[in-house]
Amino acid sequence: NAGVTQTPKFQVLKTGQSMTLQCAQDMNHNSMYWYRQDPGMGLRLIYYSASEGTTDKGEVPNGYNVSRLNKREFSLRLESAAPSQTSVYFCASSGGTGSYGYTFGSGTRLTVV
Amino acid sequence: GDSVTQMEGPVTLSEEAFLTINCTYTATGYPSLFWYVQYPGEGLQLLLKATKADDKGSNKGFEATYRKETTSFHLEKGSVQVSDSAVYFCALSQYSGGGADGLTFGKGTHLIIQP
């Protein structure tokens, strides 16, 4: 099925470990996004990529890096995980100018102990 | 900056009751407005949208009208079902040219429908 695929679905890390969350879309969308979801906070934008080769910071970028590998793939890296990064992470993509809506992946539940 | 405010939950209703979830926004310009729904353990799905003032978005019996004068986009459904139990997010998007900036979300409203 067409859509946004995230891996892994679940991950437990120890404080200080690093990991990369993978995201791929097969809808030929230009824009891709990473959000985190925390109880009582809604969704907050971490980074986005308006097109292949460009990335920009969102509301909460500290502690994260991203790579837009090609048009399909947009990865999120935690270089040194902290308990405050325990969250559910969602990748999304959009093909339009903001009025088309976004397609979300099913999420990665990350726990940092 | 842009912001979205929606009623806090949980909202608990009986099956077949009328539903209203309030959403108001603060934004410059003319944003597009969205409602997303998140079922347990899943990602967000677009429920409906409106891109200009007085537009009405509708889907699966849900409706919301873009009211610029009151900066609101309230979600309504005439008769809810147990299967509507989920978290509902109101969101807005501004296109500033050169690439999308991402959605701004409200904090979500947890809706519980009892049989």
Query: Per the principal axes of the C-alpha atoms, what is the gross shape of chain A?
Result: globular
Number of strands of chain B: 12
Unreliable segments of chain A (pLDDT under 50, ≥5 consecutive)? none
Share of helical residues of chain B: under 10%
Q: Total strand count of chain A, please?
A: 11
Q: What percent strand of chain A?
A: over 45%
Which value, in Å, is the CA radius of gyration of chain B?
A: 14 Å
Q: Would you tell me the overall average pLDDT of chain A?
A: 91
Spatial gap, N to C terminus of chain A: 34 Å
Largest interface: A-B, 31 and 25 residues
Can you describe what's shown?
The complex is a heterodimer of chains A (113) and B (115). Chain A has strands at 4-7, 10-13, 19-25, 31-38, 42-49, 56-57, 64-68, 74-78, 87-94, 103-104, 108-112. Chain A has 113 residues and is mainly beta. In chain A, the strands form two sheets. In chain A, strands 2, 4, 5, 6, 9, 10 and 11 form a seven-stranded mixed beta sheet that branches. Chain A has a four-stranded antiparallel beta sheet with strand order 1-3-8-7, with no helix packed on it. The mean pLDDT of chain A is 91. With 115 residues, chain B is mostly beta strands. Helices cover 0% and strands 54% of the residues of chain B. Chain B contains no helices and twelve strands. The chains are: A mainly beta (113), B mainly beta (115). Chains A and B meet through β4, β5, β9 and β10 of A and β5, β6, β10 and β11 of B.
